[in-house]
Structures are given as structure tokens and as C-alpha cells.
Design a protein that fits this description.
By secondary structure, the protein is mainly alpha-helical. Helix content is about 75%, strand content about 5%. Among the domains are: about 100 residues, no CATH class; about 40 residues, no CATH class; about 80 residues, no CATH class. This is Tetratricopeptide repeat protein.
């Protein structure tokens, strides 16, 4: 008989507890309607320890309201609160709440927009947290993990950045694809519309124009380079090389990875190794002028001017408008000026010295004349570059062409 009394008492107590839980969940709903998110959180925290005593419908409501309470107005919530809200909406959605499913989609959009706002304010750690939360909510959206890693690099949280980047490698994240873009007629901005079908549809509405399909290159090289950069900054060279070798093992023909590897060895001071890799890249893909330009720069560093000029010329053969290679070629050609001037300054006042001075002066002027066509082309490609104009003015002045000097001075 005593046992029956105790059991009845326990049942009564549980019933009273369940009623109290329902009251707290209902109070949270009322607080949300009033926009009082703090009160809603407080009510839900009281209800949560005994949540299992509520039936499925009330548990579904609990998670829906919890999501709303922690999301707040969607603008001022912290990354941690947004993560809590997302997890709550996820549970309510799994229990069948259509409202929670819609709220979860809105929350994901808010997370991304909030992360973008944080990036613009240079609050990179906060942006990374929100992007990582977006990835956790939808593991198929690995691009958010990639952007989270980049923000962690900007925030100088290198340990966390490497963790995310290594995870991307494990997931074999590539990131390549196509972007379907068009210009928003109202704003004039080009926007990514997600798919060809959506792009075509929006162009038909005449709200968008000038559709384009843009190729998005693989990000494997960027990822490997970021990992290597971090390890190099920490002087963990073995880890940097291991990370690059691991990435190359699965993608041996990825030109971006080879470029990244060359950059890694260059940062480590192994410039001969870096140049060898770049020459391998140039042999495999002779269509990229930047590769030839960079090889030229490396030869210029070891004062092999002739080879440097050859590679700058190859870059310009591929892209005659690639002014960076042209300016580098001009600089390489003008290296001969230093030796001439040094000898001129070291001469005495004898007849033989004066004769030699005149020979060197003529040689110097011939050098200037040989470079001027390149400078004129450089100014044609980039007419607002003051450094190029100033260099041309100096050469024309040394050649005694004051008319040309005045013409260029007017451009300045």
C-alpha cells in the first residue's frame, strides 16, 4: 500500500512538472511575440532540464522558440548565439516543423550576410566563426569552410586555419566550377545567380542583362599554398613540404599546385629549386605569361640578365599588353648602364681617359636608344604610369631631346 502511495505521488509530481514545462514554453512564446528575447531565453533555460517529460509537439515548439530566442532580430546576435539558434531550428525541423525549416534557411542567409559584414569591418575571427557554423549546418557547402579558413588566416589564428585547411584536403575540396552571372539592371552590379536555369530565367524577366558563364578555377593550389605559408611562418619547413607533397600526390597535374610549390620554396630561400619548378610549369603550360615573367625575375636576382630578358620576351610574345614583363625587361636592359657609369666615374683626366669616356658615353646613349621603343610601348599600354614616364624623360634628357622631355613633362 505504501508503494502504491509513493507511485501515485511520483506520477502526480511528474504531471505537475510537465505542466510547469508547458507553461514555461508558452511564456517563452509570449515573450517572443513581445520581442523580449532575453525573457524567452530565461523561460526556456528553466524548461530545458526536464524537456524529456514533454510530448513531441511541445518539444518541437521548445526548439522552435529556442531558435527564435537566440536568433533575436538576426542582426545583433553573436556567432555563438546564432550557432545555438541554428542547432535548435535543425532539431525542430527534424521533428517536422516547417516553420523551423524556413527559419533555418533564413538563418543561414543571415549568417553569411553577417560574416560578410564582419569581413568588411576586418573582424575576421567573428566572420570565420559564422562561416564555419554555416558549414556545420550543411556539410555539403564546403565553400564556407574554405572562406572560414581564409578568415582565420586574416585573424592570425593559424592553428585553427590549418585545422580547417587540412580538413578541406581530407574532403578533397576542389572549389572549381562555373559561375552564372548577369548584371542587375537596377543596381548595375554583376551578380552570381547560382545556376544557368536561374540566370536564363532572370534575364527573361528583364531584371537582369548581359549574362555570362565564368569558369571558377580549382582552389587546391590556394589551399596548399596557405598551409605552406603558415608552416613557413612558423619555421616548420618539414610540415610545409609534407603538406605540399600530399596535395600533389592526389593532383600531380594541377598547375596551381606547382605554382604554389615554387612559391613555397622561394619563401624558404631555395630559389634555384623554385625556378626549376616554375620552368617545369612553363614547359607543361606555355600559355601563361606570368610564369615566364616570374622565371625572368628569378634569373634577374642572380644577375643572369640575358636569360631574364629572354623570359620577359617570352611573356610578351604570349601577351603583348603584359606591361609588368615589359617594365622588368627595360629594367634588366638598363642594368648594363651601371657598369658603364662606374667605369666613366673611375676615369682620370688623361687624353686616353677622355677618349675612353667618349666611347663609354656613346655606348650609354646607344643603350638608351635601344630601350626607348620599349618605354614608348610601355607608356602606350599604361599612359598614366608616372614611373614609366619619368624614366623616359630621364633617357630623352640624357640624349638631349628636350622637346620630347617637355612633351612628357606635360603628361606628368
Amino acid at each position: 500500500m505504501k508503494t502504491n502511495i509513493l507511485t501515485a505521488a511520483a506520477v502526480s509530481f511528474l504531471t505537475m512538472t510537465a505542466v510547469a514545462q508547458k507553461d514555461q514554453v508558452k511564456n517563452a512564446e509570449d515573450a517572443l511575440e513581445d520581442g523580449n528575447y532575453a525573457e524567452a531565453k530565461a523561460q526556456l533555460k528553466v524548461a530545458e532540464p526536464n524537456l524529456s517529460e514533454l510530448n513531441d509537439r511541445w518539444q518541437e515548439n521548445f526548439y522552435l522558440y529556442k531558435g527564435k530566442a537566440y536568433m533575436g532580430d538576426g542582426k545583433t546576435a553573436s556567432a555563438e548565439d546564432l550557432k545555438t539558434a541554428a542547432e535548435a531550428f535543425q532539431k525542430a525541423s527534424e521533428m517536422g516543423s516547417d516553420e523551423a525549416t524556413e527559419a533555418l534557411t533564413a538563418l543561414k542567409n543571415n549568417l553569411i550576410q553577417s560574416a560578410i559584414a564582419d569581413q568588411n569591418k576586418e573582424e575576421y575571427a567573428s566572420a570565420a566563426d559564422k562561416l564555419y557554423t554555416s558549414y556545420q549546418l550543411s556539410k555539403t557547402d564546403t565553400v564556407y569552410l574554405y572562406y572560414a579558413a581564409n578568415n582565420m588566416v586574416q585573424a592570425k589564428d593559424y592553428d585553427k586555419a590549418v585545422e580547417y585547411l587540412e580538413l578541406l584536403n581530407e574532403l578533397d575540396y576542389d572549389g572549381s566550377g562555373k559561375a552564372y552571372t548577369a548584371v542587375n539592371v537596377e543596381t548595375g552590379e554583376r551578380e552570381n545567380l547560382g545556376s544557368k536555369q536561374q540566370m536564363d530565367l532572370m534575364v527573361k524577366t528583364e531584371q537582369y542583362k548581359e549574362p555570362e558563364v565564368e569558369n571558377i578555377p580549382s582552389k587546391k593550389g590556394d589551399i596548399a599554398q596557405l598551409i605552406a605559408r603558415i608552416y613557413i611562418s612558423q619555421e616548420q619547413y618539414d610540415k610545409a613540404i609534407a603538406a605540399m607533397d600530399k596535395a600533389k600526390a592526389t593532383n600531380p597535374d594541377d598547375m596551381g599546385l606547382l605554382q604554389a610549390e615554387a612559391n613555397m620554396y622561394y619563401q624558404m630561400g631555395e630559389k634555384d629549386k623554385a625556378r626549376e619548378i616554375l620552368e617545369e610549369v612553363a614547359a607543361k603550360d606555355p600559355s601563361d605569361p606570368l610564369t615566364f615573367n616570374n622565371i625572368g625575375l628569378m634569373y634577374a636576382e642572380i644577375e643572369d640578365t640575358e636569360k631574364a630578358i629572354d623570359f620577359y620576351k617570352k611573356a610578351l610574345e604570349i601577351d603583348p599588353e603584359f606591361n609588368e614583363a615589359r617594365v622588368n625587361m627595360i629594367a634588366a636592359k638598363l642594368q648594363a648602364e651601371k657598369e658603364i657609369i662606374d667605369e666613366m666615374n673611375g676615369l682620370g683626366m688623361s687624353k686616353a681617359d677622355n677618349q675612353r669616356y667618349d666611347e663609354l658615353d656613346a655606348e650609354r646613349k646607344e643603350l638608351y636608344k635601344s630601350v626607348l621603343p620599349d618605354l614608348e610601348k610601355a607608356m602606350e599600354v599604361d599612359p598614366d604610369n608616372k614611373d614609366i614616364i619619368q624614366t623616359a624623360m630621364n633617357l630623352y634628357s640624357n640624349l638631349g631631346n628636350q622637346e620630347k622631355v617637355e612633351e612628357l613633362k606635360a603628361k606628368m
